[in-house]
Amino acid sequence: MKKKNTNKSGHAKTGSYAPYANNRSKSAAPSRDRQVKRAPPARRYVNETPVSENIPRGPLAMKNQCVGILRESGFDGVVEPDVGYDSSQYGRILVRARDLNGAPFGMKVVCEIKNPQASSGEYEGSIIEVLGDPGRSDVAILSIIRQYGLSTTFPEAVLAEAEHFPVNPTEESIGSALASGRRDLRSLRTITMDGEDAKDLDDAISIENLPGRGYRLYVHIADVSHYVKEGTALDDEARLRATSVYLVDRVIPMLPPRLSNGLCSLNPGTPRFALTADMTVNYEGEVVDGDVYESMITSDARTSYKEIFGVLFEQKYLDRYADFVPMLETMKDLKDILSAKREKRGALDFSFPETHVDLDPDGKPLAIYPYPTSYTNGMIEEFMILCNEFVATRFFRMKYPFVYRVHEDPDVLKIAEFLHVAKLFGAKPNIQGKPTSFALSSLMKQMEGEPFTPALSQILLRSLAKARYFEENLGHFGLASECYCHFTSPIRRYPDLYIHRIIKSYLHSEHKKEYFASQVAEVSAHSSDMERNSMNSERATVDQKVTEYMVQHMGDTFDGIISSIFRGGIFVQLESSVEGLIPFRTMNDYFEFDERRLEARGKTSGKVYRIGEKIKVTVGNVDPILRRVDFILANSVDGGRRTVRPEKGMKKDAGEGTSKSRDRSGAGNRKESGRKHGK
Questions:
Q1: Backbone angles phi, psi at 110, to 5 degrees
Q2: Is the pTM of this model over 0.70?
Q3: Is 511 contained in some domain?
Q4: Does residue 618 form part of some domain?
Q5: Apex CA 45: angle with CA 41 and CA 49, to 5°?
Q6: Residue 416 belongs to domain spanning
Q7: Mapping DSSP to helix (H, G, I), strand (E, B) and coil, where does residue 401 land?
């Protein structure tokens, strides 16, 4: 199964989101309504938030619940929290015999904290659900779903509303909409371009040459707000979820499939309601004129990145797309202009391929490799970035309430630390005063093509702020954009859907400015929380499958590259994108980590390891429960004098999986194969 690529960050409030938190179907969360008698709290602190509540929470997450493995401890038990919980958050949770509730030891369980105001390590709990054998792959994924508060089903009221809609728009509804002023663009040649397995098609493109002036670019976005109305169960649920979640083995959609894959998706050959950004773009890539309006479109072809790349560069698929070649050539011309413009203004480009896992029907991992992206992914990405900037700028200038995608300027001290590291690799930074995206982009261009460049890019990424949703326009540092939003994916992101609602209200002169002004802060904060939760859950499922796959390769040797170094060892990334740790204690010399130089040096051998260095490793230990891969050096260190004792892999530090920090998204600029535009 293909995992949808999401280059698809957030922090702020925690806890469930009010509009629908207390009115959900029991089928969506069977344990939610269970009443558990609480023991008196062991300690209580005035005005102090319990440690157990200080985490991002998914739409179904309950405060003071923890997923972990139940171990035997005399007549009692203890729950060892799963990877993903911070080591200072829970510690081992004591479960007294009377609170085991029949749960067998050794099982993955959901534990409710009975004394949430206690200190970390002093919690007592009660078992409220048994998930199953932690060694089973399906139980591992279910545990992640429960830990991050995700719901794989929809409440009955939501499904009932979705079933009320037709499979396709009726002629009557189309006629009525056109009579009310919706523009009929069905005669425009229009295509969608996406990954081959994508089913929720948010966006479509039309384009025209304007000789001597530039191009007329139409970006058509599914008009989800035409169906999902405020105050309905559908909207409450979408607002609560805030995002679709693309786990390694499944998609958990924000909207029921009848809408997300059907009526709202811009499927070919069927009329669809859309919001169209109609832009005139000059030869410098600037929008010189444009409008946003409601439209009716029909996609003429459902294309894929692979196919269009073949048409443009490999003379493939021409029998299928011969009539579209002029249009595709025009799209290519505009894409090149837009890419050059973004590069000129200093937009940062973090092109880190995501890990892709091929699974068999039973969920067994068959292959792991970096998710392939191509020129045509970037083509759609450029069009969507342009569209998002155009829409955000238009409403910012009108001083209208809005949900912006912001990426604030980085901390000067963090950038200073990065510049120190860059100098170690030979860069010659010339940054005076406040760092700009242009200066950092220029610096990274000095290092292009070097083996250490990906690792250095990761260090820069972690030095930047995280992108988030916000009710004020703070600009987008990573894109070097003065004004940006998410407008292009309303099927899978609630902020996009919400600003569609704002735009349509403005177009219809509904005079709801004050109302939206009261809503955008909460929508922004909750959507940022849920985005971060989604990203963490996605990475957790990938890590799970990576470790399951690497179990099959215990003892095998691979070529890799040093991706990072810390005081406990060296992280190495394989060509497959799998990352694992070589603990220093498994090496036949005593290595010390020099934090200032980001290198490890052997005391007796003098051997030095640096980021970006090629290295050969053997898979030494794999733990799917901890989602951890440990490597050992394939070749011993010459001159080393330390005796290495065979032992199992390094004890995990809670919260760490197969890599030092799977949060590679620092700026929130997850490159989304061109279409998901998570910048």
A1: -110, 125
A2: yes
A3: no
A4: no
A5: 95
A6: 412-464
A7: coil
Residue 161 CB-density burial (10 A; 0-12 exposed, 13-18 middle, 19+ buried) = buried
The contacts of residue 670 (CB under 8 Å, 6+ apart) are 6, 7, 8, 9, 354, 535, 676, 678, 679
Tens of pLDDT, residues 382-398: 999 999 999 999 999 99
Residue 651 is encoded by which pair of tokens? Answer: 């004890």
| Domain final residue pick, 147, 165, 191 | 147
457 contact partners, CB below 8 Å, separation of at least 6? 350, 352, 444
Give the β-pairing of 557-566 and 569-574: antiparallel
Residue 599 covered by a domain: no
Closest CA to 108 of 76, 148, 73, 81: 81
User: What is the β-pairing status of strands 301-304 and 191-194?
Assistant: parallel
Burial of 153 (0-12, 13-18, 19+ CB in 10 A): middle
User: How far apart are alpha carbons 611 and 613 in whole angstroms?
Assistant: 6
- The DSSP letter of residue 594 is E
Residue appearing with tokens 């998204």:
665
Residue 119's CATH number: 2.40.50.700
pLDDT band at 49 (very low <50, low <70, confident <90, very high): low
**Number of domains into which the chain is organized:** 2
Asked whether residue 105 is assigned to any structural domain, the reply reads: yes
pLDDT band at residue 517 under the 50/70/90 scheme: very high
